[in-house]
Amino acid sequence: MSEQTHHLRSRPGARTTARTTARTTGRSTQTRPPIADWEPRYRRSVVLGDVLATLLVVVGVSLVMAARHAALVPVSIVVLDAVTAAVVLASFGMSRVWNPTVLGQGAEEFRRLGRGLFGSLVVLGLGSLAFAIPGARLWVFVVTPAIALVVFPLRYGLRRLLHHARGEGRCLLPVLAAGNDESVRDLITRTRRAPHLGWRVDAVCTSDGRGGPSGTVDDVPVVGQFRDLADQVRRGGYRIVAVTPDAYWTPRRLQQLAWSLEGTGTEMVVAPNLMEVAGPRLHVTGVLGMPLLRVSEPTFTGFRKVVKGVVDRVGAALLLALLAPVTLLACTAVVLDSRGPVFYRQRRVGKDGVPFTIVKFRTMVTGADALRSTLAAVDEGAGLLFKMRKDPRVTRVGAVLRRYSVDELPQLLNVLGGSMSLVGPRPPLPEESAKYGPDVRRRLLVKPGLTGLWQVSGRSDLPWEEAVRLDLRYVEDWSLALDAVILWKTFRAVFGGRGAY
Q1: How confident is the model at residue 56 (pLDDT cuts 50, 70, 90)?
Q2: Which of 111, 143, 387, 493 is most open to solvent, judged by the fewest CB atoms within 10 Å of its CB?
Q3: Are 29 and 39 spatial neighbours (Cβ–Cβ below 8 Å)?
Q4: DSSP code of 265?
Q5: Is the pLDDT score of 453 beyond 60?
């Protein structure tokens, strides 16, 4: 075993022995990359959590229903429990909620969970109607939401543990990247910036096999040329081969690479030149014997739009009611801290460039807008944004309100009125939107949001280009599941006060 292969075998989290297949090519025995101990262990934890949560909820709800419906005999309850649990778990399996490729990252994991629960709800609902079991219909429409209330937080908790481990450099999959220097460097930067995705680029193959002056690309060693890629995979035990754009990669060569990787246990990932388009807009179809990657137009109409509108208004109304004491306390604090109105109104640009008035708690001294020009020299904001970490215009109470985003609570009135959404891009100022280029103006295709990818990814700490990229990604890949994930993450970002000033 070579020194490089031994290093890869002995890194933390990997097994010390590799599993070999019985297949042998004309050149060498194909060695499967070692499966790290954490992978099956994490998958077992997810499966066991889903199964136990389903069984506990089913039994718990059945006991409550049995106490309320004397017509349900014990045998019927046991049968109903068994059938319900079987249907829910079978629906999970058919929806591939335990597929390793979706566990621990992205909204697809939760989207599949939702699809599985909805499928079981339909089957159980139709079954209860067909067999006319007393109280069963009510039971069905209670047990499925109850399972969701347990399974979704449990999945998120397991994901947080996995992401924490990845942030410490553990539970990462070794990746061999192959492409031109620029595209590989971009991939390396992205994986280092987002370790929770689980990739670690350990080696690079380039067209000339040299890389930079030191034989590396961003401190990652170049181990060979493109034609050596399959051999490097067999020797190095990489779990993923990430093919990034390069003129070398013709369809024929990609096909040959895919064939040469068969039996190695290594996943081949090809990055099309559509890095910010993903999720529901990408479809792979076969036409005339050719695999085609279809990119559909982003849609903001139909049933999903109706659901989003209902969730926005109902959610805003509930939050206004629940947070009424906080709102009252903030109003009192603003009045006692400095002279001026409680609320601050400002013109912003909404969907399709239509202006509207945003409402916030006042966090600055009266006349702060007029003082902005005098502070232009010390602007710390990125791009078109004006930001200062220690803005002298911010009041003492205003600093606290900003840190925990309490100043934005009145924007729930904007959501309730329909000019904003709970989730969406940041609402820009008119002078900002006037400077937008054609690509950045795509942010205006959807309603601005009270929160968004920009807020859960760093808020004011983000560079301008990164904030724009996240907003555009939201516009391109919008889905109800993505909205749910962003709302969930917002609570953590707000309570932590991260990136707010």
Answers
A1: very high
A2: 387
A3: no
A4: T
A5: yes
* pLDDT (average), residues 447-471: 77
Which helix (H) or strand (E) segment holds residue 283: the answer is strand 282-287
Give residue 148's pLDDT.
92
Burial environment of residue 462 by CB neighbours within 10 A (0 to 12, 13 to 18, 19 or more): buried
Measured N-to-C along each axis, helices 108-131 and 74-94 cross at an angle, to the nearest 10 degrees, of: 140
- Note whether 176 and 202 are within 8 A (CB): yes
Task: Encode pLDDT of 282-331 as tens digits.
Answer: 656 555 555 565 565 566 667 778 889 999 999 999 999 999 999 999 99
Q: DSSP string of 358-385?
A: EEEE--B-TTHHHHGGGGGGG----TT-
Q: Is the pTM of this model over 0.70?
A: no
Tokens 């982003």 — which residue? 298
The answer, yes or no, to whether residue 17 has pLDDT greater than 50, is: no
Give the DSSP H or E segment for 205: strand 199-206
| H helix or E strand, kind and range, residue 287 | strand 282-287
Q: Do 257 and 268 touch, CB atoms closer than 8 A?
A: yes
Give bridge partners of residue 343 from the DSSP assignment: 361
202, 132, 204: which is closest to 172 by C-alpha? 202
- Two tokens, residue 277: 């388009």
Given a cut of 90, whether residue 415 has pLDDT beyond it is: yes
Domains and CATH numbers, the chain: 3-34+171-271 (3.40.50.1980), 38-166 (no CATH), 303-496 (no CATH)
Q: Determine the pLDDT at residue 233.
A: 86
Q: Give residue 312's Cα distance to chain centre.
A: 20
Q: With the CA atoms of 230, 235, 240 and 246 taken in that order, what torsion angle do they form, in degrees rounded to the nearest 10? A: -40
| CA distance from start to end of the chain | 54
Report DSSP state, residue 95: T
Residue 200: CB partners within 8 Å, gap ≥ 6?
Answer: 172, 173, 174, 175, 191
Q: In 237-323, which residue ranges form alpha helices assigned H by DSSP?
A: 251-260, 303-322
